[in-house]
Specification:
Layout lengths: L13 H26 L13 H23 L5 H33 L7 H25 L5 H38 L8 H25 L9 H15 L6
Helix pairs in contact: 1-2, 1-6, 2-3, 2-5, 2-6, 3-4, 4-5, 5-6
């Protein structure tokens, strides 16, 4: 700092939990790849293996990247709010694109193999989560990233945005767990109950998904770990309120 003050630091414990979340996230991605590569033949687009792009994309997009997007405001505590918002929106947008690729993969694979679509609980929950996630992203960009919404309107919507952000993250993990179970029952229903290696690996992936979700949710819900507003952000907020609502900050 210019006045000789020590640089701001993260709250005690935050860095450790964020590091654990990233370790879990990378491990669950590696476990997904190991399961698909070792037991399901790998991933290829124009082939019978096209379906395998679906679980890989959903775990990467709807779980790992979505979780990291939610953690942005905890990790980047002292950077400009505008930059943090942009990164938050960018990670969510990237998660949506990757998830869309996964959805296209499963529909094309079903069409090629003559399998019906959208009949299972997994497909219902998964599609509902994706559609709501897309809506959440558009609303978030409209309210917070682009100018236009008034200060009071932003204030009213912010609690809903935070609640549904965490809710959709939990729903994404739930949908993945349903998908893992469905895939195992389709592929190894005769041997699943005998603790075969593929079943154990897939169950381990499910446990990792739950662990990642718990750690991320814990970080998000610790009140003292929330990103404090910087002094210049408070001034800008008051200026924005004045401009959009036509009243003085002290009014």
């Amino acid at each position: 700092a210019m006045d000789g003050a020590p640089p701001p630091t993260s709250p005690t414990g935050l860095s450790a939990y964020v590091a654990v979340s990233q370790l879990l996230g990378l491990t669950l991605l590696a476990t997904t790849g190991a399961w698909l590569g070792r037991y399901r033949g790998g991933v290829a687009w124009h082939s019978p293996l096209q379906f395998n792009a679906h679980p890989l994309c959903m775990v990467l997009g709807m779980v790992f990247l979505q979780g990291d997007a939610l953690l942005v405001y905890r990790v980047f505590r002292n950077e400009a709010k505008r930059s943090t918002k942009a990164l938050h929106a960018l990670l969510h947008g990237l998660a949506l694109v990757i998830a869309l690729v996964g959805i296209i993969a499963v529909f094309e694979s079903h069409r090629t193999k003559g399998i019906p679509d959208m009949y299972s609980l997994h497909s219902w929950c998964g599609m509902a989560t994706f559609v709501l996630y897309l809506l959440q992203w558009f609303l978030g960009c409209g309210f917070f990233l682009f100018p236009g919404a008034s200060f009071s309107l932003r204030g009213c919507y912010k609690p809903q945005h935070i609640f549904f952000g965490i809710t959709l993250f939990i729903l994404s993990i739930t949908s993945c767990l349903l998908g893992i179970t469905e895939m195992l029952l389709f592929k190894i229903s005769d041997s699943y109950s005998h603790f075969v290696p593929e079943g154990i690996l897939a169950n381990t992936l499910g446990v990792l998904l739950v662990a990642f979700g718990l750690v991320v949710t814990y970080v998000l819900t610790r009140e003292e770990w929330k990103r404090p507003p910087l002094a210049e952000e408070l001034a800008l907020s008051m200026d924005f309120k004045t401009l959009t609502e036509g009243e003085s900050p002290g009014g």
